[in-house]
From TrEMBL, chain A:
UniProt-recorded name of the protein: Phosphoribosylformylglycinamidine synthase subunit PurQ
Gene: purQ
Gene Ontology biological-process annotations: 'de novo' IMP biosynthetic process
Keyword line: ATP-binding, Cytoplasm, Glutamine amidotransferase, Hydrolase, Ligase, Nucleotide-binding, Purine biosynthesis
PROSITE patterns the record matches: GATASE_TYPE_1
GO cellular component, one term: cytoplasm
Function description: Part of the phosphoribosylformylglycinamidine synthase complex involved in the purines biosynthetic pathway. Catalyzes the ATP-dependent conversion of formylglycinamide ribonucleotide (FGAR) and glutamine to yield formylglycinamidine ribonucleotide (FGAM) and glutamate. The FGAM synthase complex is composed of three subunits. PurQ produces an ammonia molecule by converting glutamine to glutamate. PurL transfers the ammonia molecule to FGAR to form FGAM in an ATP-dependent manner.
Pathway terms, separated by semicolons: Purine metabolism; IMP biosynthesis via de novo pathway; 5-amino-1-(5-phospho-D-ribosyl)imidazole from N(2)-formyl-N(1)-(5-phospho-D-ribosyl)glycinamide: step 1/2
PANTHER family documented for this protein: PHOSPHORIBOSYLFORMYLGLYCINAMIDINE SYNTHASE SUBUNIT PURQ
Organism: Desulforamulus putei DSM 12395
Catalytic residue positions: C86, H203, E205
From TrEMBL, chain B:
Single biological process term from Gene Ontology: 'de novo' IMP biosynthetic process
Protein's cellular compartments: Cytoplasm
All residue ranges annotated as the PurM-like N-terminal domain in the record: 69-184, 434-553
Source species: Desulforamulus putei DSM 12395
Function: Part of the phosphoribosylformylglycinamidine synthase complex involved in the purines biosynthetic pathway. Catalyzes the ATP-dependent conversion of formylglycinamide ribonucleotide (FGAR) and glutamine to yield formylglycinamidine ribonucleotide (FGAM) and glutamate. The FGAM synthase complex is composed of three subunits. PurQ produces an ammonia molecule by converting glutamine to glutamate. PurL transfers the ammonia molecule to FGAR to form FGAM in an ATP-dependent manner.
This protein's name: Phosphoribosylformylglycinamidine synthase subunit PurL
Residue positions of the active site: H44, H90 (proton acceptor)
Lineage start: Bacteria, Bacillati, Bacillota, Clostridia, Eubacteriales
From TrEMBL, chain C:
SUPFAM superfamilies to which the protein is assigned, alphabetical: PurS-like
One Pfam family named in its UniProt record: PurS
Official protein name in the record: Phosphoribosylformylglycinamidine synthase subunit PurS
Domain of life the protein comes from: Bacteria
Function of the protein: Part of the phosphoribosylformylglycinamidine synthase complex involved in the purines biosynthetic pathway. Catalyzes the ATP-dependent conversion of formylglycinamide ribonucleotide (FGAR) and glutamine to yield formylglycinamidine ribonucleotide (FGAM) and glutamate. The FGAM synthase complex is composed of three subunits. PurQ produces an ammonia molecule by converting glutamine to glutamate. PurL transfers the ammonia molecule to FGAR to form FGAM in an ATP-dependent manner.
Cellular compartment(s): Cytoplasm
EC number: 6.3.5.3
Enzyme class, first EC level, given as a word: ligase
PANTHER family with a match to the protein in the record: PHOSPHORIBOSYLFORMYLGLYCINAMIDINE SYNTHASE SUBUNIT PURS
Organism of provenance: Desulforamulus putei DSM 12395
UniProt record, GO biological process: 'de novo' IMP biosynthetic process
Length: 233, 741, 82
């Protein structure tokens, strides 16, 4: 299984994603330059976190027009696995691959700390190793992760089980106090209708090694590999 | 034509400095030349006042690969790898525009690190503000934190540590000291030298605008009402541009095309060009018409003095210009040849074919004036030091005092700030903010690097020499508590107006104390920054010689943290708790006093304590270690409980007044815990090593309980503290956020 | 040549945290009659285009494509000939 990590100007979790994928899955992984016109040969594309183009207009708004996004969108439409983390999630919503939008955190501050997530749907390639309702601890680091969608879209997301992760307390209770940024329905991560495109604000790559004190993020990368090798999902 | 004296005086040159310029040049300088001399001879660039003192600091040691004089210091961490690090102030800009001032402070120090070829891996901030009950202070604090967060998070270098203190003396002059740490393979080290006659000189990165002209001179004078009006001196940072510049520079350095490289920091093109030439003993010829500009109609003077951010000056091997340009183009950046290295030692600036300035490069650097300014012992010292601390009443309720201390912004959790910093990006942060020191792993090895910044300005105010020595000792102690061997220091010396003999005296005292401690603890100084004129309407900041220190963890499995680990573990105090209440946070909180003699520092004892604790962390005997600092033993114990999420049961002998026992800030004290069965082994080792200690009690329960016994006085002892850890934690964690509301 | 002055604001239904902070601060300053504050973005775009209809079409296009996120934002603009 070959992973590709897209490098936009201003991406800063690209190296982290590459490192985590390598460490957890042991599979080949390469960078994909934003000017690249093709993503041929890759089985899973990761849009990493960071501040693409400085996030100067809106987060992800400019990156969405990078040359590489055309083949990424085609790849996703063909059913290819695409995962956007943090800024990558923002890019996916800007690109229309995922519904809704992410705007300023409710308290207007950038927030960097651990959050607890409840796995709401374990039938996706990104979560097939998890059990439904499982609680995992994954850190966030963002200023604009406040998920918004209009009521109709939100209803559809819930109905189709497209909400993959929700902020919760350590016991799995979805409470307002556990919601760090004001996201509607405590949404931390969603997928598209087909289930092959995931966007999430928390950073699984930051907690995938014992030396960093937390390995909960391994679950997501391990799921991807196992799904690909048809061992789960 | 003779120049009007007003011209050079307004630029900050004295008449005698102007005469010296005429003497060096053998003629009257023109306007551009006076401007160049004025910035290069400003205090900020020339260190003309501080140099004689700085020369007395120890700068050499077995691990030092680069001492003072370059863009940053470098220490060896084995395996052909090295740590590049430096601290710098951005006080004046931050006091006027906190967000941009702090942001460009981060940007500037990052460039100092990657200009050496190192990848920046961590940022630490040492911040000082007035008291938070003042709305202006809250605005500054929020702005500075947001600026650090905005710049650091965007470029993707984690902000892993630092310190924040609040005291009235910083009300008009906040201090923003930023330290950056980078990692490098020693073979890739680059220096700021313009070597190789005929080699092309290139300007890379952002375009040049009129930003911050005279920023360096601005940083060399007191803040006044008028200064606030001269806002153009504050530059605006562009972290996105810097991220591209960082990646492009590291890529181009890897190619081997680069001969020398330097950041265009204070005094922009002027300082970078003359410093690079001066270090190499060469000259430079540049045509300013070739410098990419953001604004029209800029004069040569403006181009030379612009402090537009995110720019670098490169000297590359002749013939590689096109390849260098290609790499920068890949990152959508300008890279333009603007001149070449010459052999005549002259900085020759042209605008098209016309020469607009011609100055020997060394005249601007090495020949800058040096002042041995007069010193005088400040009158306040005797009064504050002799304050009869012992006559103060003892508290009735120790629980209440402890909670008050934990809620003091100087002691309370700094989570309000560091939650806004991305401290994890890069996947190296092993020990996160909130512990004694931050620890980062070095990927692909078993090693870690530990880092910290420290300085208690109040101690330095009460006794500058001891205060500065304590800053060094505490920094080293913090590293030791994390399991690291202290290696080297970078310093950021924040003082008032050095033209006042009292300020100069405290400066010299601080340097003496620092030199002594650095020698004793074998942590040489590799460079840093001096910031004078932190003074408004005659009120100077507390002397604040901030120490940035890095250390090496040989084996990451042996990293130690402050939190108590397991119920039943035995708690010891290593070192000696003495009746020392002077300068304590307790005196400030309880009596509103910032007086008394600060705790004494015995460097021999300090060394012994540190060596013992480090050895026994490495041996695996010590399970947790935490340095006692502001708030004394009781606060340190509370912090061990909070971090560990577990209580402790402590019993101490009351050898002197209870408040001094619990809240005095004696130095060289470390609280450790060991397995309950290892207590005997520990005591034997302590006795063998001749290290003083006290057994304090046991880890366990949900509360911090501190009892005292009083031998020879039945009924005098009893319980002083009994507080649920949950209560302690809530108070400590929420205090700053509560004040910011 | 035309100059477009584009005003982008959060849509009515979207929570505007900046706006609510400013509203509260205004209230604290004694402006008790302030009902709501919405904060947006103001952009100035200079276009080298001869006629107004074409300029209008282009600005609308830019807004729909890049400058505005229709999921959360609304916009209006004015065109001035310069």
């Amino acid at each position: 299984m070959k992973f590709g990590v897209v490098v936009f100007p201003g991406s800063n979790c690209d190296a982290d994603c590459l490192h985590a994928i390598q460490t957890v899955t042991g599979q080949p992984v390469e960078y994909i330059w934003h000017k690249s016109g093709s993503v041929d040969g890759f089985d899973c594309i990761v849009l990493p976190g960071g501040f693409s183009y400085g996030d100067y207009l809106r987060c992800g708004a400019v990156a969405r027009f990078s040359p590489v996004m055309k083949p990424v969108i085609e790849f996703a439409r063909r059913g290819g696995m695409v995962m956007g983390i943090c800024n990558g999630f923002q890019i996916l919503t800007e690109a229309g691959l995922l519904p809704g939008a992410l705007h300023r955190n409710k308290n207007l501050q950038f927030l960097c700390h651990d959050t607890y997530l409840r796995v709401e749907n374990n039938t996706t390639p990104f979560t097939c190793r998890a059990s439904e309702g499982q609680v995992i601890k994954i850190p966030i680091a963002h200023g604009e992760g406040n998920y918004y969608a209009d009521p109709e879209t939100l209803r559809q997301l819930e109905e189709n089980k497209q909400v993959i992760f929700r902020y919760c307390d350590p016991h799995g209770e979805v409470t307002p106090e556990a919601n760090p940024n004001g996201s509607l329905n405590n949404i931390a991560g969603i997928c598209n209708e087909q289930g092959n495109v995931l966007g999430m604000m928390p950073h699984p790559e930051r907690c995938a090694e014992a030396v960093l004190g937390n390995t909960d993020g391994q679950l997501i990368f391990q799921s991807l590999l196992d799904f690909w090798q048809r061992r789960c999902g | 034509m003779v120049m009007d004296p007003k011209v050079w005086r307004e630029m900050g040159l004295t008449d005698s400095e102007y005469e010296k310029i005429v003497e060096i040049l053998g003629r009257e300088p023109n306007y551009v030349e006076v401007g160049i001399f004025a910035v290069m001879w400003s205090e900020h660039c020339s260190y003309k006042t501080s140099r004689p003192a700085l020369k007395t600091l120890p700068t050499e040691g077995p691990a030092i690969l680069q001492g003072p004089g370059e863009n940053a210091g470098i220490v060896d961490i084995g395996d052909g790898q090295a740590v590049v690090f430096k601290i710098e102030s951005h006080n004046h800009p931050s006091a006027i525009e906190p967000y941009q001032g702090a942001a460009t402070g981060v940007g500037g120090i990052l460039r100092d690190i990657f200009t050496m070829g190192a990848r920046p891996v961590a940022v630490l901030d040492s911040l000082r503000f007035g008291e938070l009950d003042n709305p202006r202070v809250r605005y500054l604090f929020d702005g500075v934190v947001a600026g650090i967060s905005g710049y650091g998070n965007c470029i993707g270098v984690p902000t892993v540590g630092g310190e924040v203190y609040f005291a009235d003396s910083y009300e008009d002059n906040c201090l923003v000291n930023v330290m950056c740490v980078g990692l490098i393979d020693q073979k890739d080290i680059k220096k700021g030298v313009a070597a190789g006659i005929g080699n092309p000189v290139m300007v890379v990165g952002a375009k040049t605008g009129r930003d911050g002209i005279h920023g360096a001179t601005f940083a060399s004078e007191e803040l006044s009402e008028e200064a606030a009006e001269r806002r153009p001196a504050v530059q605006v940072g562009d972290p996105f541009m810097e991220k591209l510049l960082l990646e492009a520079c590291l890529e181009v350095i890897k190619t081997g095309y680069v001969v020398g490289i330097q950041d265009m920091g204070a005094a922009g093109l002027t300082s970078s060009s003359c410093e690079m030439a001066s270090r190499a003993g060469t000259g430079l010829e540049m045509d300013l018409a070739l410098v990419p500009r953001r604004e029209e109609g800029m004069t040569p003077y403006e181009v030379m003095l612009s402090e537009s951010q995110e720019r670098m000056l490169l000297v590359v091997e002749k013939g590689t210009e096109e390849k260098v340009k290609e790499i920068f183009a890949k990152w959508d950046l300008d890279a333009v040849v603007v001149g070449r290295v010459t052999g005549d030692g002259i900085l020759r600036i042209k605008e098209g074919s016309q020469v607009v300035a011609e100055i020997p490069a060394r005249a601007l650097t090495e020949q800058a004036p040096v002042y041995h300014r007069p010193t005088r012992v400040p009158a306040y010292l005797e009064e504050v030091q002799n304050y009869p601390v012992d006559s103060l009443n003892m508290p009735h309720d120790y629980n209440e005092v402890l909670l008050k201390l934990l809620a003091s912004p100087n002691i309370a959790s700094k989570e309000y700030a560091y939650k806004q910093y991305d401290y994890m990006v890069g996947l190296n942060t092993v020990v996160t903010p909130g512990s004694d020191a931050a620890v980062l792993r070095v990927k692909g090895t078993r090693k870690g690097i530990a880092m910290t910044t420290d300085c208690n300005g109040r101690y330095c105010y009460l006794d500058p020499k001891t205060g500065a020595a304590i800053a060094v000792a505490e920094a080293a102690r913090n590293l030791v508590c994390s399991g690291a061997k202290p290696l080297a220091v970078t310093n950021c010396l924040n003082f008032g107006n050095p033209e006042k003999p009292e300020v100069m005296w405290t400066f010299w005292q601080c340097i003496e104390g620092m030199a002594e401690a650095c020698r004793a603890l074998e942590t040489p100084v590799t460079g840093g920054n001096v910031s004078f004129y932190n003074e408004t309407r005659g009120n100077a900041v507390y002397p604040t010689p901030t120490i940035g220190m890095v250390g090496l963890v040989e084996d990451l499995d042996k990293v130690c943290t402050q939190g108590f680990k397991q119920a039943g573990d035995a708690i010891f105090l290593i070192g000696e708790n003495l009746p020392e209440l002077g300068g304590s946070e307790y005196l400030k909180i309880q009596f509103g006093l910032e007086k008394g003699k600060p705790p004494a520092l015995n460097l021999e004892l300090e060394k012994k304590v540190q060596r013992f604790v480090l050895d026994e962390i490495k041996s695996g005997l010590i399970k947790s270690a935490h340095d006692c600092s502001e708030g004394g033993l009781a606060v340190a114990l509370a912090e061990c409980c909070i971090s560990g999420g577990i209580g402790a049961d402590i019993t101490m002998v009351r050898r002197f007044r209870g408040d001094a026992l619990l809240f005095g800030e004696s130095q060289s004290c470390i609280i450790i815990s060991v397995d309950r069965h290892k207590g005997v082994e520990l005591v034997k080792k302590l006795v063998d090593a001749g290290v003083p200690y006290t057994q304090l009690g046991t880890v366990g329960g949900d509360s911090l309980i501190i009892n005292v016994v009083n031998p020879g006085c039945t009924g005098c002892g009893g319980n002083l503290v009994n507080l649920p850890v949950k209560k302690i934690e809530e108070t400590w964690r929420g205090a700053i956020a509560c004040l910011m509301k | 040549m035309f100059q477009a002055k584009i005003y982008v604001t959060l849509r009515k239904s979207v929570l505007d945290p900046q706006g609510s902070v400013v509203r509260k601060s205004l209230y604290a300053l004694g402006y008790h009659n302030v009902q709501e504050v919405r904060i947006g973005r103001y952009m100035v775009v200079d276009l080298e285009v001869a006629d107004r209809a074409e300029a209008e079409k282009q600005v609308r296009d830019m807004c729909d494509k890049l400058l505005v996120n229709p999921v959360i934002e609304d916009y209006t603009f004015e065109l001035v000939e310069v």
